[in-house]
Amino acid sequence: MRLFTARIVTATEADVPDILQLIRDLGEYEKLSHEVVATEDSLRATLFGDRPAADVLLAYAGAESEVCVGFALFFPNYSTFLAKSGIHLEDIYVKPEWRGKGIGKSLLVRVAQIARDRGCGRLEWEVLDWNQPSIGFYKSLGAVPMDEWTKYRVTGDVLNRLASTA
Amino acid sequence: MRLFTARIVTATEADVPDILQLIRDLGEYEKLSHEVVATEDSLRATLFGDRPAADVLLAYAGAESEVCVGFALFFPNYSTFLAKSGIHLEDIYVKPEWRGKGIGKSLLVRVAQIARDRGCGRLEWEVLDWNQPSIGFYKSLGAVPMDEWTKYRVTGDVLNRLASTA
Question: Does B4 have pLDDT greater than 70?
C-alpha cells in the first residue's frame, strides 16, 4: 500500500473539538455510541491539564492538508517480565471516507516511532473481533494476536462494591 | 470467603528483590518463564526512579505478617469514551501455598480502593483463558469479560520495522 501523504501532528488544546468529534465517530463505528460520555471540558481537563493522561496525534489530509481525518491516542504501559515501559494504543481511527489511503498506517507508524524513540519494549492495542478489515491490516504488519488472554473489567457500582469490601 | 488478614503495603525500593522473585514465580505459573528478563537493576530504575512506571503493592502473611506472599502491580490507563483515567492491573499474584485465604482478594480490594479514591472510571486486568480458578474468582466479584476484544502486539524487530516504514 502506498502511503498517502497525510500530515500527522501532535494535538494541542485547540484541537479538543476535533478530538471529541473523532471519538464520537469512533463510538458510532464500534457500535458503542451509548458509552461515549466525553465532553470538550472533560477532554481538555484530562488530556491538556497539568498531568496529561495520554498523547494524541491527529491526521490531516486534503489538497492542502486542511481536513482533520483521523486520530491516535496512546499512553504508557509496563511489562513486569521486561521491566520496561511500552505503549498502549487506546484508539486509532480514520474517517470512513478517508480510508484505504494509508492514513491509518501513517498514524500507526508514527506511534511506533515514538515507541522506538522512547526505548519501549512493546506496542499494543485492542481490536474488536468482528473488525476484520482492521485485523487483516494489523496482521499484515506483523502484529501478533494475544488470543489466549481476555480482559476483565469492573466499573461503576461493581467497582465501588469491591472497594468497600471489608 | 473470609478475608485472611494479610497486610497489604505499598512497595519501596528495598523490596525490589522480593518483587523480582514474585515476578519470576508468576512467569513460571503462567508458563512464560522464557519471557522474564527483568533484573533487580531494571526494576529499580523503572519502578523507583524519577518517574515510576507503575505502583506495586505487596501482601505479607504469616503469624507475624513477616512473609512476602504476593503482589499487585498497576498503572493508569485512559478511556476516550469516558474522558477519564482508569487503572490497568498488570499483575496480581499470590504464591501457591498461600492461596485460598483471600489474600488475592485483599490485594484486588486495595487496588479497587485506590481506583475509587482517584475517581477512576474503570479497573481492568487480563487473564489467561486456561486460568479457570482465577476466572471463576473474578466473575464472582462481578468482573465482566471483554470477550469481543483481542489484543495485538508488536515487539522487537517487527516494532523497529514498523517504525522505519517510510
Answer: no
Category of A63 on φ-ψ map: left (φ > 0), alpha (ψ -120 to 50) or beta: alpha
What distance in Å separates the CA atoms of residue B71 and residue B57, rounded to the nearest whole number? 5
Query: Between A1 and A146, whose confidence is greater?
Result: A146
Selected for mutation to probe chain B from A138, A152, A160, A165 (highest B CB count within 10 Å) is A152
Q: What is the pLDDT of residue A63?
A: 85
Cα angle A47-B43-B105, degrees, rounded to a multiple of 5 = 75
- B81 closest CB neighbour out of A27, A82, A162: A27
Per-residue pLDDT tens over the stretch A49-106? 999 999 999 999 988 888 999 999 999 999 999 999 999 999 999 999 999 999 999 9
Distance CA A55, CA A11 (A): 8
Q: Which CATH superfamily is domain B7-163 in?
A: Gcn5-related N-acetyltransferase (GNAT) (3.40.630.30)
How far apart (Å, rounded) are the C-alpha atoms in residues B34 and A159?
34
Would you give the DSSP letter of residue A4?
A: P
3-state secondary structure of B76: strand
Residue of B29, B78, B93, B138 with catalytic role? B138
CB within 8 Å of A83: residues ≥ 6 apart: B37, B38, B39, B42, B43, B45, B46, B47
User: How is chain A split into domains, by residue range?
Assistant: 7-163
Residues of A carrying an active site annotation:
138
Taking an 8 Å cut-off on Cβ atoms, the answer to whether B81 and A150 are in contact is no
For testing the chain B interface, which of A5, A42, A50, A79 should be mutated: the one with the most B CBs within 10 Å?
A79
A11 to chain B, any CB pair closer than 8 A? The answer is: no
Non-local (6+) Cβ contacts of A123 within 8 A are A86, A87, A89, A111, A112, A115, B153, B154, B155, B159, B162
